[in-house]
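Summary for the steering committee. The consortium agreed at its last meeting that each partner would contribute one worked example illustrating the joint modelling workflow. Our contribution is presented below. We chose a case with several input lines so that the handling of multiple components could be demonstrated. No manual editing was applied between input and output; the record is shown as generated.
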Amino acid sequence: MDIRSQISMVFHLDKCIGCHTCSIACKNIWTDRKGAEYMWWNNVETKPGTGYPGKWENQDIYKGGWEVTDDGIQLKGAGKPKSLTNIFHNPHMPVIDDYYEPFTYKYLDLIESPAGDDQPTARPISMITGEPMDIKMGPNWDDDLSGSPDYARNDPNLEKLSPAEKEAMFQLERMAFFYLPRICNHCLNPACVASCPSGAIYKRGEDGIVLINQEVCRGWRMCVTACPYKKTYYNWSTGKSEKCILCYPRLEAGEAPACMHSCVGRIRYLGVLLYDADQIESVASAPETDVVNRQLDMILDPFDPDVIASAKSNGVADSTIDAAQKSPAYKFVKEWNLALPLHPEFRTLPMLFYVPPLLPVMASVTKVDNKEQSEKMHPVGKYWPDSWLYDTSTEELFGTIDEARFPLQYMANLFSAGDTAQVGDRLKKLMAVRLHRRQVTVGDVSEKMVKSALDDTGLTPQSADDIYYLTSLAHFNDRFVIPAAHREQAIEMMEFAGDVKGSTGFGFKTGTAKRGA
Amino acid sequence: MNALNTFLFVAFPYVAVIVFVFGVAYRYRRRGFTVSSLSSQFLEGKTLFWGTIPFHIGILVVFFGHLTAFLLPRATLAWNSIPVRLIVLEVTAFTFGLSVLVGLTALMVRRVTNPRIRAVTTKMDIAIELLLLAQVVLGCWIALGFRWGASWFAADLSPYLWSLVKLAPETGAVFALPWVIKAHIVGAFAILFMVPFSRLIHFVVAPLHYIVRPYQQVIWNWDRKSIRNPNTPWSKTRPNNS
Ligand code: SF4
Ligand code: SF4
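What follows is the complete predicted structure of the assembly.
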């Protein structure tokens, strides 16, 4: 057993309002630079939709992630020897148009244009060439377009759905969508690391953050292909790849990452998970629908004395073990078993987990007789040809989950390699918590029903209340339990500060300029 | 004339090699961030294919061809002693030379016509492409106009290069060569000279070590076990400044 600690994240999708505050917070800090304008280390997608870059989930196009072969798992579009043979021209490399061409506007024209008959306009300008351009695509241009044929219907996750199910999703009256915020998953079996011919990408031992050493990256761009989530980006100006750094300078100072700190919906949780690194390879090679369960099995109980002892002997700090015990990630992922990783079938063992959204699932649509209703209406509104009604009645309990507006299969394609049972379990739990709270606060649900819902899902009133607390009421310090970086050691994490005494300070190692003798 | 010859074939090669070695070492160690292939595939991937593949494949074959004749002149001559083999060698070398020419031209055209690629093009990029272009045109010219280079390179130029290596330059044979070949030799050292100052440096960092590396890499900022052990002397876990 090789116990390591990983900073892990949970996103509660029921709570995301799609405001993109997270993306902006990240952009302002990290990617507002030349060559990085198009990068959104954090982006928010509307599902169903094609995402960013377009159809990134379709690995027939992008060849990301791992696949099972005769000799174990191999990278699909990179690795040995492909990373070397394709080095002159990588056939699976996305180009900037798959993301979008970054643009700005010539705002100064609004002020400086000579007087004329027409209002001056600010023309869009390409941030690559500086030439005027027609904007065709932006980072979130499929926002809220779940009915549009260009976006929603091209969602790769619709694959295993029956034509009837697909059709049902896009009837205007039944339409539903949810938001999927995405950052780098800081995977346990990262495809980006494995694909890098230079060895520039690595996982930090102490906290599992995956980083690209900018001094070592040579722009061979294999990671762009290999990451199935398309979360490594090529900086076209510096010739280096870049990715989410999980705001490690903030984490080391005990602050939450910028996207999480700023999250308006408070959907984000961050905490330590202890796991057994010896199992990585075998878990990543497991049969497709087993990967999630095996990955969850790898995560260890931080209260178990054996685990604590062996973590300590492996050099995990006491403060980290303490953080693991208070970790909201542990609660959501292991204790309550409520969260799932995105696309486990890519086999990178992502350490960002999602609580699947119940909202669009909960209401189902039933056919009703609307005649009586229409009689009463004003003649103008009288003709209402459809007879659907949103059925939010809870009498049916789990029935509504199976007949949901989003077919369960769709959710399963996203979160559990197509296995509807795994997603269904989580949704039922969410539903049970809701029923329980409804009973506590309003009291119009029968006690018997609540009890059967809780029993069916293995929850107790106490754990349901805990879930409710962490979901709805949690304070900042409950949502982000950041292990101490041990400043006393961390200040020297990379280098001995004494050696750079008297130099230019943070960020520069070169000495101050000498002016004369 | 002799002074110029001595400069070009004795002084300049040494300067070029010294600049190459120290320049590359300095840039690699101190300016690692600037060492990159500067791939432009992300901005344009389709026409790149028709340039980069013939160029790179061609230049690899041609480069290793020259290297073999330089390092193993006797073996090369022995191989060439059967005319058919010599002809096969010459034809192959010329084909790959053409491949370099075609690829480089395609890359050049792409670089000046595509506005996105123009945006990432520096003056140095253009200078390097012109230098390479001149070199490969001269090379193809030599292959056509001065036949059996595979043999006379091994017979005449290899000894000259070895004399440089041995720090006892013997330049008689080189001085007597036609100017086309002389220009090609000077061009070769000029390219070497430019490596530390241009994107050419990327060939030095060709990532061959990837083949022997395990896929996953975990880096600990310090030795996690000894740093938490109070008996560890400070000097053991003292961090290294790179
Ligand atoms: S999400 Fe992609 S970039 Fe992030 S660690 Fe996993 S493979 Fe690497
Ligand atoms: S800030 Fe939070 S709520 Fe807003 S889009 Fe991002 S994840 Fe969703």
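The first strand of chain A starts at residue 3 and ends at 12. Residues A 16-22, 44, 179, 181, 263-265, 267 surround iron/sulfur cluster (ligand 2) (CB under 6 Å).
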